[in-house]
Amino acid sequence: MSRPPFCVPPAGVRAHRLATRRGEFAVLDAGPAPGIPCAGTALLVPGYTGSKEDFIALLRPLAAAGFRAVAVDGRGQYETLGPGSRAAYGLGALAEDVLAQGEALAGGGPVHLTGHSLGGLIARGAVLRAMAAGTLPAPFASLTLMASGPARVARFQRWRVRLLVATLPVLGPSAVWRMWNPRPEAGEIGAFLRTRWLAHTPQQLLATGRTLRHEPDRVARLAAAGLPVHVLSGERDGAWPVPLLDRMARRLNARRTVIRDAEHSPNAEQPEATAAALTDFWLTATSRPAPAGRRTAAPA
């Protein structure tokens, strides 16, 4: 779970619902100031137990760099309602949702897809579905995998997710929250985190928890898609070890960026450095420069 540094949308960030062929999705949306040309659109997909607010601190820096930034709640996440069937939250269904979101945003220039953690696995699935349909590079001009690895999460995280999935149907969301947060954070952020957790559709958490524990390695298929890829992470990560992310980037011939003083959520922990790394990649993605090895981005 990412802990956003704040949860109230700042000036220039609009909360609304994005209409797609797969239904409506709650989003936070920020664009360049009037009169500034838009360089493209960033579609930001959150991770397990997360929401669009995980990217809230990125939105204004991305807009200031000339991009429209759209962070989305996936189906069953926080403010996007979802059905009560676990089958509705398989990776294929969620990837098709992201593909539909990309199509809905494609009229504003190139769409740069970014997925954090579980969101990276879903975003990868959306790219592979576009490849299978023969539409690439539409609707996506690039893919950034943020703190998201080649396959299932590390062993310790698999055990944590297994425990959550086992207790949720038995105890219910409120009791599970109390179990995992015996000393809950006070104030606005603490209240938001609890509200968000309780708003998630339980079946979404159960189904996507299984994805985190069982997702196979699809790196070779992604490499065959030929899309510019960026592998970005903090310098420490408990979900996928950083050396594993390094190796994945080499397999993808991808740009590799490590954000200093960040762990699993550089989007929330070091948003300025993360936004700078993202926009630098997006501005050069269409020219397809050769990757120059691992890059380190220091906090601003």
UniProtKB/TrEMBL annotation:
**GO function term, MF aspect, one:** hydrolase activity
Give the matching InterPro entries.
AB_hydrolase, AB_hydrolase_1, AB_hydrolase_fold
| Residues annotated as domain AB hydrolase-1 | 43-277
Q: Which UniProt keywords apply?
A: Hydrolase
Pfam families, alphabetized: Abhydrolase_6
Q: What is this protein called?
A: Alpha/beta fold hydrolase
Q: Which organism is it from?
A: Streptomyces boetiae
